[in-house]
């Protein structure tokens, strides 16, 4: 991914603080990292404040019989032998 120059006007005290954290040769990387983190944060906040539910029942037909049935099915699959290997013996007390 290419880069593009952008002219930013920052107060001198902020530049000084950035230099203390990132060094004068690390300003751009610091600002890119900070901007990306802030964009992620704002997108997350927007998502969390959205009235639209994130989970839609029609997108998960495997849960039609309930999550407990789905988990039981998954556990049953893990007990099946794979690649011609015999099923592991169950531990008995």
Question: What's the layout of helices and strands?
Answer:
Layout: H1 12-22, H2 27-49, H3 67-79
Structural commentary:
This protein has 93 residues and is mainly α. It has a domain at 12-49. 51% of the residues lie in helices and 0% in strands. It has 3 helices and no strands. The chain has helices at residues 12-22, 27-49, 67-79. It is elongated.
Major beta-sheet overview = none
Task: Compute the number of strand runs.
Answer: 0
Instruction: Specify the overall morphology.
Output: elongated
Tell me the radius of gyration: 26 Å
Order of helices and strands: HHH
Measured by DSSP, the beta-strand proportion falls in under 5%
Number of alpha- plus pi-helical segments:
3
Short key terms for the protein model shown above:
single chain, mainly alpha
Short account of what is shown:
This protein is mainly α and 93 residues long. Helices cover 51% and strands 0% of the residues.
């Amino acid at each position: 991914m290419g880069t593009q120059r952008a002219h930013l006007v920052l107060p001198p005290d902020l530049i000084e603080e950035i230099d203390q954290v990132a060094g004068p040769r690390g300003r751009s990387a610091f600002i890119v990292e900070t901007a990306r983190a802030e964009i992620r944060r704002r997108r997350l906040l927007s998502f969390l404040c959205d009235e639209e539910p994130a989970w839609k029942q029609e997108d998960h037909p495997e849960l039609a019989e309930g999550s407990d049935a789905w988990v039981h099915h998954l556990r049953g699959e893990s007990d099946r032998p794979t690649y011609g290997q015999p099923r592991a013996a169950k531990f008995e007390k």
